[in-house]
Give the backbone structure.
Amino acid sequence: MSALQSASGKSHAANPKTYDVVVVGAGFAGMYMLHRLRRLGLSVRVYEQGGDVGGTWYWNRYPGARCDVESMQYSYSFSDELQQEWDWSERYAPQPEILRYANHVADRFKLRPDIALNTRVDRADFDEHANSWSVTTSDGKTVTATYIVLATGCLSNARMPDIKGLSDFKGKVYHTGHWPHERIDFTGRRVGVIGTGSSAIQSVPVIAEQASHLTVFQRTANFSIPARNAALTEQERQAFRAKYPEIRRFAREESRNGIYTEMPDKGALDDGDNERRAKYEQRWSRGGLTFMSVYNNLALDKAANDTAADFVREKIAEIVRDPETARLLRPNNHPIGTKRICIDTDYFATFNRPNVMLVDIKSNPFEEILPNAVRTGGKDYEIDALVLATGFDAMTGSVAKIDIRGRNGQTLNQKWAEGPKTYLGLMSAGFPNLFIITGPGSPSVLSNMIVSIEQHVDWISDCIAFMRDRGLDTMEAKKDAEDNWVAHVNEVAHTTLYPQANSWYMGANIPGKPQIFMPYIGGVGPYRQICNDVAAKGYEGFAMTGAERPRKMAAS
Ligand code: NA7
C-alpha cells in the first residue's frame, strides 16, 4: 500500500478530513471498533460527546453504581495480555474502577490520538454518487467517510421525566444517568429518589447512609437479587484466569446471555416444592443474575416463573419489617426477569432504616413538584435534593438524536417511526455502509454487553475487510432480509413472557414510543451462529456493490 492510500483507495494526506470509517462513541464498543479497524490499516476517526472514554461508565457516576455482570466476565477478551494483567478488585467492580479500566484500554492500545472528545455527531448524510457518508459534528466541522459505525450505546440517552413543576424545584436535581463529576455529599439533606429500577436500587442504600431523610417514590416495584458482592482474592482471580479459554468460549458460543453459568436441563415444575426451594435458596445465597437460570423455562412458562417470583416476594416480606412497605415492595405486575432483574446490596433492608420512607406513586401519581417538596396523594414530602433514577430512552434514543439521512434523503427516524427495523441488528435497509453495534434486533441488552460488543465488532471488521479485499464499495441490508429478521425477532420474543412487562426493552417507558420488543431474545450463542452463517454465505441478505477496478489492499 502506498503511504497515501488507505483501504478505500482515498488519499488522506491530501485531505485529512476523509476517513475510511467514522465511529460514533468511545465507550467499550467504539474503543474496540477503533482497535480492530486500525489493525486493518484503515483510517478511523472516533467522535465522543463525553469528556473522556468509557461511555455508560463515564456518565453513570451515581452513588453505588456498579456492574451487574461479574467483572471477570464483564471485561474484554480480545487481548489475553489484557485479561491476564488487569486486577479486578471486587466481584462486581464499582463504576470508578470500570472507568479506570476503560482508560487503561485507551492508553494501552494507544487509542486516544484517533478519538475526538467533547464532540457530538449531529448529522450524517449518505452521498449516493460518492458512496460515502458526510458527517457533521457539534464543532461545526464536516468530514467524509466510507463507513460509519454507531457505537452509541443502548443506555446513554438519560430520560428526564415530565412531572409538573419539576423546573420550579429550588433544590438540586440529579439524574443518575448524567451524574456530576464532583462528589455529591447528601449529609444532612432530605433527598427524594424517583424511580426504582436498577440505578435506584443501587443508589438508594448508599444515599440512605448519608441523607438525613430519604423518600423513595415508587411507581413499579422491581425484582432484585442480592449481589453478594465481595473483594476478589488473588487466588480467585488466578483460578478464573486459568479457566478463561473455556469461560470465554462458552459465553460466546453456547450461552444465552453471554455469561458463563450452568445450563439447566429441567423446568421449574419438574422438581418438587422442597427441591425447588432448595435450589432457589442456593442461588439466592450465591447472588447475582444467574438466579434466572436455575431452571430452563423461567422466561417461557408463567407457572414456572411464578415459583421464582413467589420465592423472591417471600424474601422481600422476610427482610422488610413494616408490612405495608413490604407489600408495596413486592412486585406484582410483571413476571420475574421480564424487566431486567436488578442486583442489589441491602436494597430491601434499607427500608428498615428510620430515615427511609417508601411512597407509592402508582396509586397516587405525582400531583406536582413544589419549590421544596413533592406533592402526591394530597401530601407534601419536603426535600432538599431530587435524584431522578428514571432511566433512558433505551436502544434507539441515542441513534435518534443524530440526524441520519440515507438513500433518497430518508431519515433513520422516519424509517424507524413505527419501531426500529434492522437486519441482524447490524444494518438498516436504505442506509448503506452504516453499521450499528449492539443495536435493536441483536441480543444486546439481554446479554453481557462486552461479549455482544466484541462479536459485533469482529463481524463488522471482517465484513469491511471482505469488501476491501474484493474492491466492493457499498453494502446494504436487503429489504426482504430485514423484514424477515424483524418478524423473527418479534416472533421469538412472543414465545417468551418478556412482552408481558411494560419494560424499556419494549420502549414502554417512553410515552409515544412504539411498543416493540427491541432486543433479539434467541440467545447469544445461536445469534452468533446466524451471523457467522450469513458471512460464510457471502453476506447473504446484504447487497454488496463495487467499482469495476480492483482496489489496492491495505496492509493488515
Ligand atoms: P429503569 O430500569 O428504566 O428504571 C427507571 C425507573 O424510573 C422505573 O422504576 C420507572 O418506573 C421510574 N420512572 C420513570 N419515569 C417515571 C416518572 N415519570 N414518574 C415516576 N417514576 C418514573 O432505569 P435504570 O436507570 O434504573 O436502569 C436502566 C438499566 O441500567 C438497567 O436495566 C440495567 O441494565 C442498567 P416504571 O417501571 O416505568 O413504572
User: Anything to note?
Assistant: The chain is about 30% helix and 15% strand. Residues 1-14, 548-556 have pLDDT under 50 and may be disordered. The pocket of NA7 is lined by residues 155, 161, 163, 176-177, 194-200, 219-220, 340, 361, 389-391, 504, 509 (CB under 6 Å).
